[in-house]
Specification:
11 helices, alpha/beta, Aminopeptidase, binds zinc ion, globular
């Protein structure tokens, strides 16, 4: 039975606990590939995990935002359940797991922002000078609770506002809102991809040919699928399929947060279905006691994205 993910469902969550879970997972299921695709500002490894033998590449990522780190155990649990299903041959969400495995490759980065996740959980080393830096950044934004309101990476760049898709527009909007310096959230960075975490995501994506990307966030129980007027072929229909199976609404991103995110950049550069899925509701960080309920509700999106991926053409790069 899948149980490794349970070590991540804890308020003591840390990069070390996560690394150990990755070790255990890949030891138990040797057909899961793993690689370090970059390092966080504080030097934590940024793991990518991969599984499958097919040509249709699907990408899932979680925890761009520090106080949305609950998305990490969510994605990790799916990878573990999928691996367990591959090993046993039992269907997953009623789907033929052998077919999924033979026709697709799942790539996953379950923890994009390890330093930020540690900061929110109180497990980032207080003797690290970066900790003092984060405290100073927090003190410049006294209205944002510290550290629970922290979404950024450890040096105060909002990673999901750091991609080269309408970045100048995002900057104008966020500067107008007062986020003109490194901040707990909403600071776009000095330039696109100035943060090592978003740059690594960019490089990973450029090196592969993802047909579908799923980015997990936690605010609103909705599926965002568009960037500006880009409407990748099949994208709306897939969003509707996800919606029917989860009850999440399909929506257009609000203008003020509609630029410089991972999915915005992916859609702009690849013109393939890219989604931001908001799997929770309430104030971040969501209580870890909500974990099972959140997981069960969003779960169908994962096997379904593998199921539909072979029908999406690879991006022409
Ligand atoms: Zn978010």
């Amino acid at each position: 039975m899948p149980d490794i993910y349970k070590t991540l469902v804890t308020d003591d969550f840390s990069s070390r606990i996560y690394d150990r879970a990755v070790d255990e997972l890949t030891a138990r299921y040797p057909f899961i590939g793993r690689g370090i695709w970059g390092r966080s500002v504080a030097g934590a490894p940024l793991w990518s995990l991969s599984m499958g033998e097919g040509g249709a590449q699907v990408f899932m990522n979680a925890a761009h935002h520090a106080n949305e780190w609950i998305t990490t155990p969510v994605l990790f649990r799916f990878i573990e359940e999928y691996a367990e299903s591959v090993a046993s041959g039992r269907p997953i969400y009623g789907l033929d797991v052998g077919r999924l495995y033979r026709t697709t490759v799942l790539y996953a980065v379950p923890l994009v922002n390890p330093d930020g996740a540690e900061l929110v959980n109180g497990t980032f080393s207080e003797s690290n000078p970066l900790y003092g830096g984060a405290v100073r950044i927090g003190s410049r934004y006294p209205d944002i609770p510290f550290p629970s309101g922290w979404k950024a990476n450890i040096t105060g760049t909002d990673l999901n506002l750091n991609y080269p898709a309408g970045w100048e527009t995002a900057k104008e909007i966020k500067f107008e809102q007062g986020f003109t310096t490194p901040a707990p959230r909403d600071y776009v960075g000095e330039e696109p991809l100035s943060a090592p975490e978003s740059e690594a995501m960019y490089v990973l994506t450029r090196n592969l040919r993802f047909r579908i990307t799923i980015s997990l966030h936690t605010q609103g129980e909705v599926i965002y699928w568009k960037y500006l007027d880009y409407e990748p072929e099949g994208s709306y229909e897939i969003a509707q399929l996800f919606s029917r199976n989860t009850g999440y609404a399909v929506e257009t991103t609000p203008y003020s947060s509609g630029f410089a995110g991972y999915k915005d950049w992916f859609i702009q550069d690849h013109n393939r279905p890219g989604y931001t899925v908001e799997i929770g509701l309430g104030e971040n960080p969501l209580p870890i006691t909500d974990f099972d309920e959140i997981y069960e509700r969003c779960f169908p999106i994962f096997p379904l994205s593998l199921y539909v991926a072979p029908n999406v053409a690879p991006p022409d790069l």
